[in-house]
Amino acid sequence: MPDLLIELRSEEIPARMQRKAAGDLRKSVTDALVDAGLTYEAAREYWTPRRLVLDVRGLTARSRDVNEEIKGPSTKAPEQALAGFLRKAGLSDVSQAHVHTDPKKGDFYVAHISKPGRDAEEIIADVMPGIIRGFSWPKSMRWGKASAKPGSLKWVRPLQSIICTFGPETEEPTVIAFEIDGLVAGNTTSGHRFHAPDPFTVRRFDDYSDKLERAKVVLDAERRKEIILSDAQNLAFASGLELVEDEGLLDEVSGLVEWPVTLMGEFEEDFLQIPDDIIRLTIKTNQKCFVLRKPGNGLSNKFILVSNIEASDGGKEIAHGNGKVVRARLSDALYFWNTDQADLPDLDKLTASAEKLGLDMAKPLDQRMARLDALNVTFHAKLGTQGERVSRIAKLAAELAPIVGADAALATRAAMLAKADLTTEVVGEFPELQGVMGRIYAGLQGEDASVAAALEEHYKPQGPSDEVPTNPVSIAVALADKLDTLVGFWAIDEKPTGSKDPYALRRAALGVIRILVENGARLELLKQFAAAVQTLASQDKADVSSNALKEDLLSFFHDRLKVYLRDQGARHDLIDAVITPASDDLLDITRRVEALGAFLDTEDGKNLLAGTKRAANILAAEEKKGTAVADAVDPALFELDAEKNLFAAVTQSVNLATQAIENEDYSAAMSALATLREPVDSFFEAVLVNAEVETVRSNRLALLAMIRQATGAVADFSRIAG
Predict the structure, then answer these.
(1) For residue 195, what are the CA distances in angstroms to 198, 216, 258?
(2) Both 44 and 171 in a single domain?
(3) Contact present, 195 and 259 (Cβ < 8 Å)
């Protein structure tokens, strides 16, 4: 079957846009081909800094003929209904339709539509101009003479050539020559901008990729990454060093070069007095280079850069030039680093803030916190300044500390310094280092190790793959920070809506969930919401009904917990069975779901579920009819051994399950419930629940209610599928 090759070559495609743009091209083209009646076996996209490429294999040469019938209205239908039918069928007059007869419905119109198939070349030529013109870029531009005309082509950078060839491997492919603003698709492209700028012709994908390689273009982004990583590791090894790998940087750099050439640069060793994180970010952010480290002994003064050309001098001048820029940037970083450790020049203006917050002005980080407060830096117009927010977090952290096993004084101290590094020179230059610099500067001024760690870790987790803090002080401050954020924005009615979440509140809630669940920490959320609301109110920041806020925010947490547990593999029906509107212990919910899932995977669990649901259904049906159900079971009314056995089993099971639940041993609670399986089965085999004698019937229904109550202590079994 024929293959289709498409290349869109432009002056440049920014690295951050390449992957998505190539995926968009694949989806747009394949969707259009399928909609037109073609099928294909496989499609793969490629991208470089200058081109988007699509390779479609096994594309059918022609769409199928289509014969279909469109049923219309009765021949007696009003004109409006007939007109709608004609529009739908594409007919100009009702005489073009056929009349069919149905014995029950009478005569009605049917349109017989025949659409002949179309050649793939015709379809491709028809859909491609619209796809290219309608291509969505975050930013695009017009160029040349055609740009003066309305509706002229827009592209991320000037589009220079288009390849579009189609045909089987055994034949010369067809060039599908559609035209856009004077640019005609053909079979010609060019290679590397500097090494192979002359045009050359191609036939199909294999021929195209081979010729590109000879023209100094590595088409496959994954191959470019492998080349860069392998060469960088080899260069580092040859110098007795190790590469500090960075997947994000590797992705970005592979999108900056078509022909990767890996080189080594260096800077003066004096700069190594700067912390490793600052050096790494300086070199990464400004020069897109990788840093190297000495085996087990910190960073090296050498770095890896990736060039797009093979220089005649082996890259010496390129490496030297990059080294000059790196040295200049590290000089700035060294200045920032030294400045942050010196006294602030305006200490006399910070006295009031220092006294209010209990800060030690002999310490640089305390000075920065005092400045943050004195500057009245706004956190949010309705939630006050950063200084006010830090005071709230410190109060909440002190209250949370004993709950999570942290020292309250250390938690308060960590919370008070948590945002201090926001006013440092280094964080001003590299915002990515907030928290990291707090930890480093706290260590330099002699803070407790757990306090220093909390300054960095209280931001965690910042994503689903990020680690959660485990140090108790870090946990207290992280929870306080996130709970203050959530309660604050709930108080001012700035909640997430749809896909919009400008304050990352979903991430904050998920962070609280992960910290509690993954650390095995218990927290009564409703109580903490109330404490946070009270703290806000003391600053005149909250003017809401505390109960309404707490209930709504707890419901939000339930939604986030459901997402988290489903991602962990939990069944949605089990989560729904365990959560109630008042459930505010997330760890308890999680453990109940885990125990319930394990129990229902057993034969006892499956059978008990069936029996419990049967009991619940009978009860629900009788309650709906108004049938009397006794308030309590009366053993004197039992007529059969199956009733006596079930009553004894339920009584014992409830006692054991209740004790296990009080001990938070949900596996033991499930084991207690498992003993009900046989007596429940025997009861339904031997006993007619709807006995003729009303007192007996009422007593048996009460016995079923006991089953529902026993299982309900762990979960609402009626919500469980199966």
Answers:
(1) 9, 7, 11
(2) yes
(3) yes
Residue 11: what pLDDT? Answer: 95
605 lies in a domain? yes
* C-alpha to C-alpha distance for 47 and 52, rounded to whole angstroms: 5
Q: Do the beta carbons of residue 263 and residue 326 sit within 8 Å?
A: no
The pLDDT of residue 543 is above 70: no
Average pLDDT (351-355) is: 95
324 in the same domain as 389: no
pTM for the model: 0.77
39: left (phi over 0), alpha (psi -120 to 50) or beta: beta
* Packed helices 505-519 and 472-491: angle between N→C axes, nearest 10 degrees: 150
Q: Same domain, yes or no, for 99 and 124?
A: no
Q: Is 451 exposed, middle or buried (0-12, 13-18, 19+ CB in 10 A)?
A: buried
Which of 610, 605, 600 is closest to 684 using CA atoms? 610
- At residue 112, φ and ψ (nearest 5 deg) are -95, 110
Same domain, 308 and 441: no
Domain that holds residue 270: 221-340
C-alpha span between 223 and 230 (Å, rounded): 10
Count of the separate structural domains present in the chain: 5
628 shares a domain with 663: yes
Decide which of 230 and 70 is more confident: 230
Residue 462 lies inside a defined structural domain of this protein: yes
**526 and 607 belong to one structural domain:** no
Instruction: Identify whether residues 487 and 474 lie together within a single domain.
Output: yes
Q: 448 with 425: CB under 8 angstroms?
A: no
| Contact indicator for 390, 357 with CB cutoff of 8 Å | yes
Q: What percent of the chain has pLDDT over 70?
A: 99
Looking at mean pLDDT, say which of 502-516, 590-604, 636-650 comes out highest: 502-516
